Amino acid sequence: MVRLADLPEWDRKNKLDKIKELGGFDGRPWVQPPPLAQCRVAIVTTAGVHRKTDRPFGPSATDYRIIPGDTKASELVMSHQSVNFDRTGFQEDYNVAFPIDRLNELAQRKVIGSVADLHYSFMGATQIRQLEAKAREMAALLKGDHVDAVLLTPI
Asked: What is the mean pLDDT of the chain?
C-alpha cells in the first residue's frame, strides 16, 4: 500500500479531501453489541477481493461481492482498480486484506462467538458517498445473518 507521503501533492490532497466527505460521524457505536466472546463477526473489505468466478470490479465500482467464509485462498483474486495499490502483500498472504483465517482462529479460541457464513468486499477506489446505497443493502444482509460486529479492512 502506498504511503501518503510518497504520493504527489495533487494525489495526497485528493485522498485527504475524501475524509471531509465523512462528516457527521462520531466515535460512538450505533448500537451496544454483546460481549466480543458472543459476537458473530463478518469481514467487510474495500480491497476489491472476490472469487475468481465472480465479475471483476470495474473503475469506480459501487457494488460489492459476497464471499462465502469457506472460500479457499486459491479461489480469491483482487481486481482493485487503483494504480497506487500494491498487491504484493495480498499475493503473499490473502489474510492481509481478507483475514478469514485469523477470524476463524479467534472463533476457535473463543475470543469471538462465531464467524459469519458470508463476507463482503467493495472496491475502495471510488467516491465514498456513492457506496451508501449498496452499503445499506449489505447492512440488511448482515443483520439478516445475525452479525453483531464487522471487521473492517479498509484498503
From this structure: 86
